[in-house]
Amino acid sequence: MSAGGAQSAAGALAARILPCGDRALLVEVDALEQSLAAHAALAASAPDGVLELVPAARTVLVRLDPRTLGLRHAEHWLRATLAAADPAAPLPEGPVVALPVVYDGDDLEAVAAVWGCSPAGVAERHARAEWRCAFVGFAPGFPYLVPAADGGDPTAALPPVPRRATSRPAVPPGAVALAAEYTGVYPRSSPGGWQLIGRTDAVLWDARRDPPALLPPGARVRFVPVRGLAAGRPPSRAVPATTVPTAATARSITVVDPGALTLVQDLGRPGRAALGVGAAGAFDRAAHRLANRLVGNDEAAAALEVLLGGLTLDLPAGTWVAVTGGSGPVTLDGASVPPRAAVRSERDGALLHVGRIDAGLRATVAVRGGVDAPIELGSRSRDTLSGIGPDPITAGGILAIGDAIAGPVPSVDVVPVGAPADGLIDLPVRPGPRRDWFTDAAWQTLLGAEWRVSARSDRTGVRLEGPALARTAAATGRELPSEGMLPGGIQVSPDGAPTALGPDAPVTGGYPVIAVVADAGLDALAQARPGQAVRLRLVAGRP
């Protein structure tokens, strides 16, 4: 396809359409205002097959369902829409919000040095400006605020502020922070490298609100200096970890031992990335679908994703259950359960035990009817980065059995699907949007080296250990404005280490994506064990 960094036929927007794997394209423009105009135009005319549009500082990520809309047809739609877009069209307006803020952040003096004023001057200048939410990213409800062009004091121009050289492992919720030309407010505790200048007790994200984000795109914001805040912050959400069965849903499972980490997952909550909410969902989607089919469920029914094994469940009589994905010893009341097969408990209190997983990393456990966990933003999935969805299951927890039944339990005894590879994993990749940030030697190294899965891997990303990937001279020391990310995107951090993003990765990020794991390889990525060898193979597209 002709997308690879080509100049668009679009007129005033001068958009470039960049490759982003086999299920996305990245529209790049020259300025934030053009990015917002492009997003508005694309959102107004999106055809079937467009899953998400993720606006960011200079880009719009367009995520596709290739079964409905292929990359070439999507590119034609993008070029035609952007060519007709009016970059001067008014942007949607959101609510006007006043946020109380105590200006006592740890980085006030560092910001004051950049601005050439005192810490008190930082507070005065920051509060004098009116801000507009340009887009939401990084985490649910995290606003990227820019000075409003038509508001505030025009003499209060604020110089851009660099990110901290070292990211903090945890930034408290409500922290007001600066990076580049943006102000952000952290909705919950999370790692972060922005410069902290203050704090607010406003709840930025509450799933019970409509919309859940206090500051959606287009919102106008004023920071109101105060001397102190009320003690304690109200919780950002109040969703129980499990559902207590009622008379209508009397059948339930008791958790005897949750193992290392067991999460409730379905097929996720796509379509909310513009609010900073990732899709999450089952990491090994094929295993999830297969487990549900084996017990006669809808493929999207909620199931349990078990990391490393160790799970023990107390089942009621007559419960059909299947275990797929990563394999190891599985027993029901002490009798061995064949892999990828449905079995039935014959008594109340029957014990299903998933032993140590010795091939792969994650097993999926489906029960007939599905796990009836609370729904949050349209899904029962746990997002480990944002904290959305049911908490990890714990010993003594009760899991209600739902009614997500699609048909009878199939008569097939066992499905001939092999266990995950315990040797070299071959991952198909396609070029990413920032391939040109790296030297030709780095690209050849990416495809030629044998990488090792780092122990520092989880559902947000699988870090690969091996040789450092060097940037070009033009990209060295450069900072990439935040742009949309997707699962499978291979980000390269400043130290040259690649990380393949998982289902719980942030929806925007600031590290360049050199390549993207093809959709067909994501399930294998889910089963990659620490220390396992990985080789990346270019499958389509030009380097």
Automatic annotation (TrEMBL):
It holds the Pfam family CT_A_B. Keywords: ATP-binding, Hydrolase, Nucleotide-binding. Residues 15-215, 274-543 form the Carboxyltransferase domain. Gene3D superfamilies: 3.30.1360.40, Cyclophilin-like (2.40.100.10). GO terms for molecular function: ATP binding; hydrolase activity. The keyword Protease does not apply. It comes from the Bacteria. PANTHER family: 5-OXOPROLINASE SUBUNIT C. This is KipI family sensor histidine kinase inhibitor. It comes from Microcella alkalica.
